[in-house]
Amino acid sequence: MNGSLKIGSIFGIPILLHWSFLIIIPLLAWLIGSQVTLTTQLIEGFLQWFVDVGFIFRGPPVPQIQINTELITAGYNAYILGAVIAISLFIGVLIHEIAHSVVAKKKGIKINSITLLIFGGISSMEEEMPDPAIEFPMALAGPFTSFAIGLVCILIAFASTLITNPGIAGVLVFTFGYLGLLNIFLFAFNLLPAFPMDGGRVLRAFLARSMPLHRATRIAADVGKVFAVIFGLVGILLLSPILILIAFFIYIGASQESTAIKYSFLLKDVNLKDIMAHEVATVPPTMPVRDVVALMYSTKHLGFPVVEHGRVIGMVTLADVHKLVPLDREAMQVKDIMSHPVLTLPPGAPVMDALRVMSVSNIGRIPVMEGDELVGIVSRTDIIKVIELKEM
C-alpha cells in the first residue's frame, strides 16, 4: 500500500505501517488522557458486570470495583497512559490480522503483507475467487483472537486489584480493563454482518453454501451498505466524524469487493488470447516524442510497445508524455521517456490476471508475449467491453 513503511516481518509476512497510523496514536492518547473520569466510570461498570455475573451463583456480598485515579491523573501520566493503551490496542489489532493470515497460509493462500493504518489492519492476500470453506474459519479467526486478548486483559485487570499499592493497582486496572473493553468491543463490532468486515465475510461464506459466490457476495455487500448507511446517520446525529468515516469505508469496501467478485465470475473462462488485439502498433526508441503524440491522435491509441531489433524494450504512453513540458517534447525521443522493464503476460493468461496487474501497477495496457514474440496487446478498455458484453 502506498505511503507505508516496512517495520518488520512475522511468520515471513511483511508488516507495514501506514502514515495514517501516526495520526491515530496521538489522537487516541489525547482522547484517553483527557477523559479519565468518564473512562474510569466506564471501565468500572464493565468490570463490575463480570463481578455481578460471577456472583449470581455464589450469593452476596458482591465486591465493588473501584479504580484509584490519583497516580493516573498526576502530571502528564494520563496522556502517557493513553499512548501506551493506544499502542497496545494496535498491537492487538496486529495479532488479530496475524490470526487471519496464519489460517490463510495453512490453507495455501499467499500473504503479501499486513498493513496497520488509521482504522485497524489489512491483510493483503493472493486469492482469485474466495473459497467459502476457507473464508469461514479465516474470517472468524480474527474476532475470536480479539475476544481471547480481551479476556486475558480482563483477568490481568482483576488480578491487579490484589496489589496493595492503590495507585499502581489503579493504573494497572485502568490500563488492562480498558484494553479488555476495547478488544471485546472489536470482537463484537467485527462480527457485525457488515461486509467487507469479518462478520460480513462469515455471512457470505454461509450464503455461498446454498448459492453461487457472486450472488452471495452481492447480498452480503448490500447488507454491508445498509449498516454503512445506519452508521453514517448515527454519526451525523451524534456529530461523530469517526462513525461517518467508518460508514464511508464500509460502503466503499462493500462496493469494491462486490464488483471484484462479479468481474471474476464474468471473466472466469476468458483468456487474453480471446480478447487481445492482434495487430499491434509499435514505435522505435528513436522516434521523436512529438511524432508519438501525432500517432496517438491518428490511431486513437494512448500507448505503444517500444520495439528494437524485434524485441520489446519498453512502453510509451500518454501518461509518460504528460510528464514532459511541451517544449521538451520537441527535443526528446521515445527512449528518454518510455517505461521499462515491461510488464507482459502470455496469451493463455486469464483476463483477471491482466486486470489485477493493471490495478496494482496503475497501467492501462499490457503487451501479450509468446516467448520473445509480441503477439498482441490488451487494454483496460478491451476488458471493460468484454465485461459489458458478458453482463447482457
**Cα-to-Cα separation, first versus last residue:** 35 Å
Order of helices and strands: EEHHHEEHHHHHHHEEHHHHEEH
Q: Please give the domain count.
A: 2
Strand order across the biggest sheet?
Answer: 1-2-3-4
Radius of gyration using CA atoms only: 27 Å
Q: In a few lines, what is going on in this structure?
A:
The protein has 392 residues and is an alpha+beta fold. The protein is 58% helix and 14% strand. A 4-stranded mixed β-sheet has the order 1-2-3-4.
Overview of this protein structure:
The protein is of the alpha+beta class. The protein has 2 domains: 4-191, no CATH class; 272-390, Roll (CBS-domain), CATH 3.10.580.10. Helices cover 58% and strands 14% of the residues. The protein has 15 helices and 8 strands. The chain has helices spanning 21-34, 36-55, 77-106, 132-160, 166-190, 198-207, 213-237, 241-266, 272-275, 289-299, 318-322, 326-329, 334-337, 351-361, 380-390, and strands at residues 4-10, 13-18, 110-117, 120-126, 303-308, 311-317, 365-370, 373-379. It starts with a strand and ends with a helix. 34% of the residues are buried. The model has no long low-confidence stretch (mean pLDDT 88).
